[in-house]
């Protein structure tokens, strides 16, 4: 199914910003594009699903999606949106987390459909060859400290303090983009709006180090209608792993969305067409008490992340409790 990817993101409310000429590139050719995932846990959470769905829509529009799992960057920690330094992980823990996340990504992306099959790459594969002196000589000299200090993710932390390790994070993520551009022909990096600074460090590195050009696109950060953070409940994160969040609790999370949120989530997390979603919204507005939107959303997402049996059990348990 080939659609205009940017147009698809627009009507779904999933487009925050993009570099000039990105849309032209995406309508001209099949583009390889990637999003980075953080391997600090052995499960992705519903907070990651915005980026997973961005890759799903990207693949459905005929492009080639690449999920980069940050085996190397997981050892450093991304300061974007963080107020404190993070714990660093050892190799065995990272590998376990990467394996678990890969199994979850396989439920969303098609890894076996020819030219635009999805791929998973691990940046540890190219960073393990680098030594510190080599990196600061070959990569660091192409970026000025002034350029790096101007990024929001750095500016917000200057008062509270930031280690050199975290300060260097954007250079490492930037190098990922350069490496994938140079070796795999990847022309686009996508991510949440808080990643814009890190992504554009990559396009800048491609310009300075590779004398080439690449593109960036970001999605908005999802908030609930009441202003609170999406993906959290009273009990903490909502995970895709049934050991961490039961299929019942997962189903309930979507079922309990407010009407405004359900309409928003439907556009982001469903692969239903625009016509189907608009028709569902009208049905819901005619009889909001029937919660048609919430039910359709909870069913589709639970089925995709878990299984038909898990969905049936969650629905049955919800009926009894209701």
Describe the structure using short key phrases:
322 residues, alpha/beta, 6-stranded mixed β-sheet, 49% helix
Structure description:
- The protein has 322 residues and is α/β, with parallel strands linked by helices.
- The two termini are 39 Å apart.
- Helix 3 links the parallel strand 2 and strand 3 (64-69).
- The chain is globular and about 65 Å long.
- The strands form two sheets. It has a six-stranded mixed beta sheet, sandwiched between helices.
- The longest helix is centred in the middle third of the chain and has 16 residues, at 169-184.
- The chain has 16 helices and eight strands.
- The model has no long low-confidence stretch (mean pLDDT 90).
Cα end-to-end separation: 39 Å
The overall pLDDT average reads: 90
> How are the strands of the biggest sheet laid out side by side?
1-6-5-2-3-4
Shape: globular
| Low-pLDDT windows of residues | none
Helix and strand content put the structural class at alpha/beta
Biggest β-sheet description: 6 strands, mixed
Rg from alpha-carbon coordinates: 20 Å
**Percent in helix:** 40-55%
Count of extended strands = 8
> What count of helical segments does DSSP give?
16
Order of helices and strands: HEHEHEHEHHHHHHEHEEEHHHHH
Percentage beta strand: 5-15%
